[in-house]
Amino acid sequence: MKFPTRRRLLAAGASLLSLGAVLRAGSTPLLAAEADKPDLEAARKEGSLLLLHGDQEPDVVKFLQVFTEKTGVPARQQRLLPGTALPKLEAEIKAGRSDTDVYWCSDIGLLEDMRNKGQLLRYESPEIAGYGKGFHSEPAGFWTAYVQITQPIMFSAKYVKPEEGPKTWMDLLNPKWKGQIGFQNSAAGSQYTWWYILKDILPADYWDRLLAQQPRIFASSTQIMTEIQNGNLLIGGKVSDFQYVKAKNDGSPVEIVYPPEGTPTLIQGISIIAGTKRPNAAKAFVDFVLSKEGQTQWNTIQGSASPRSDVTVEGIPQIKSAKLIPVGDMADYQSREQHAKFVALWNKMSGF
Amino acid sequence: MAVYGDEIAVAPAGVAARRWRWPHPGVLVAAAGLLVVLAYPVLMLVSSAFNAGDPQELPATQYGFTHVGELLRHVDWIRNTLIVSLGGTVIATAIAAVLAWVFHRTTVPGHSVFETLIAIPYPLGPLVGGLAWSVLGSPRAGVINQAFRHLTGSSVPLINTSSVTGIVLVMAIFEAPVAVLMIGAAMRRMDPSLEECSAVFGGGKLRTALRVTLPLMLPAILSAALFVFTTMMGSFAIPAILGAGARFYVATTAIYVLFQGFPPNYPLAALLGLVLIAITGVAVWLNQHLLKGRSFTVVGGRNYRPQRIDVGIWKWPLFAFACLYVLVSLVLPLGILAVASLQRTADIDWTGATWTLANFRYVLFDFPTTRQAIGNSLMLGVATGTLGVVITGLLAWLVHRTNGPGRRLVEQLAMLPQAFPHLVFAVGLLWMVLTLPLNIYNSLYAVLLGYLIIFIPLGYRTMSGVMVQIDQALEEAARVAGARWRRVMRTVTIPLLRNGITATWALLFMVSVREISASIFLSGPDSKVLGPAILSFWESGGLPRVSALAIVQAVIILVMLVIVRRLDTSHVEA
Predict the structure, then answer these.
(1) Predicted TM-score (pTM) of this structure
(2) Domain-ending residue, one of B314, B349, B384
(3) Do B400 and B464 touch, CB atoms closer than 8 A?
(4) Whole-complex ipTM
(5) Based on the domain organization, do B193 and B242 belong to the same domain?
């Protein structure tokens, strides 16, 4: 059986999401699109751009250095997972103390929520033309996907024989993995998305049974990979696929498993905060991130796949046979109720 | 030189005036200032804890007890906090009492070297300790367990630092040095005549140690124990690093988790913080009241040179105990982090074939976040040390060198932050700076303000301890000779306090550089400091790089320790 590609799947899923969001937005006033091209001279004088993100800090720093070298616009970053970042950002915006210009978020639902609250600036970067429907907000310009990530199972062949490792999501319930499965914490947008997608695919009692396995919860996929590599943790129950690329580059014998039930796949979005103090720098950054050059740079640094169809980076596995599943219903996905339900479940999962 | 913990008893604030007098203007200003910076953050916590409306509303607009029931369902967080704090305190105090006695009262060889080495683990801090012991003692891949399996073929780990016992032991190991210093300082000031009496009347060495020395030291031991207990109640780094994988949460790590996840549960976090403040407040109150009225006539301001006891055949077991402590608190942690910092991946290669210095180059030169964090931490260390000395010196002067009412209140307010776990207070302070029209949010000033407040008790205790030992007659003589206040301070008081000032400055510098619990909430994108940078690297940077950064932090602190010791030696020689 031939499965559609990850890019197509994501595009189809995200189209649905965006449609839902548009319907949901209803009477929400849409900000006029800011289509003005950024003035690079002005951008350089605006001060150091601040990027808020939840990615691996060393990767983001490296990418910002590339951006600054290319444009002459200075840039800084702060790493906070979406669950921590959003309340902080909202409190700052409310108090008029936000310094954040651009937000990279692994939970598109939260970006939609921010957009509905008028917290995002609409900027129609000319680079959005390189992205298919579903990889950007509708109407375009509030957020655009800058990366696509799948969330498979991983383990180290040094500590788990490949033939004995889990092959399906149900295999994670095998008692031999008790206390040896790692996930990210409830602040991680990718963890929320992973749960959100699988909750309708796996049996209803799956989560109680997974809870009984006493999984271990980590702050990042890097931490999970560190523990897998040194043998402290046997199975990464959900590890971002770029960690596999990094581990292989380090010569680590890591195995990746795309379960037949389907592997959650998600897009992460870039957006500009409505009250940005550095609008030209922010737009210049969005243009660069979404450009073919920017995507190639980011994908090379992170080891991830681009939503752009004209960007293919060597060394990044092209998944043709895996069944990848994107988010279905955006309105439901972005709801506070689903987020609260997830946080409650995941806190239990972490023994909290 | 006065070292941290050198002072135990702070003299009472003076004899109460019989008729009403206005407080000294400085006392009024100090009391008002302290009241504002302490009360506002606590009020923010109270407001959030009883917020019955939108949990993100600051300050709250609807009040109720909604979250009290929720907290009652999580008494395990408080129970766990009490277990690790009480267990850790008992072990740390026991280790400290033995080591202080060994170093100061026995002929066990190398006591002066041990005394120097024992001063190092405390400023290195729990973050370094937690990280190192997570590499050394994790059940599957811990270096010690791997070696044990290799040697014995056993499948059972020798130690497990992710267990409750492991967490308690690691906390005890890294908090014991401060108790050693506190108890040791009291031992140095103990009049040996009672021990000599016991010996004259035929009391054996062990009997004298147990029946005379120990009871005499009890106030100091109790004081050290309560100090350690309050510190452990607010401890974050070790439970966060060792407890997370073991699904073990104490109050501080629970608060940290409650701040994560969307939507966040600020009210429950604030309520838990208030409970923590209440418990530590009771401990501080107990400390003050248990020591109130205790006679310190045998533990005075003078330093004695009591005869050291020859412990006979116990000499070598006690020597081995001291060596073991230095091994687990200093040699092994720094050693394993040094080795891990030379690796390319988290899988440690012991052959040395793939070792690299690239991680040091990365954290020192290539990675702007760590460069900024190192620079900011150094700046904050200097600023906290300097301003902290000025503030706590003035507070100690106001309390011990002025007359009039209100001094006791100033002293109590200065010691109040001891009851505030750093992480909890930082949450309140963060909300304060966010809601006040002060433009210091996310800046180094916010972090500095936080450090100054949370470290006031430490600085004040050290400065007070030195001030009460200086004979007031010298200042009075200068005044009688016609010198004005400024001249008395410049020519008499400050020169006499020089050692105390150096010690307080160094102490405040070191505790600032190693601070993490308050910094994780107060530092922003432009005010990154070492503690959170190490934590962030631990989360997303990988073991080799986080180890390199921890080693850099340790080197900064060790260099400061060496400088202070050199200054102290040259001053004594002069």
Answers:
(1) 0.84
(2) B349
(3) yes
(4) 0.80
(5) yes
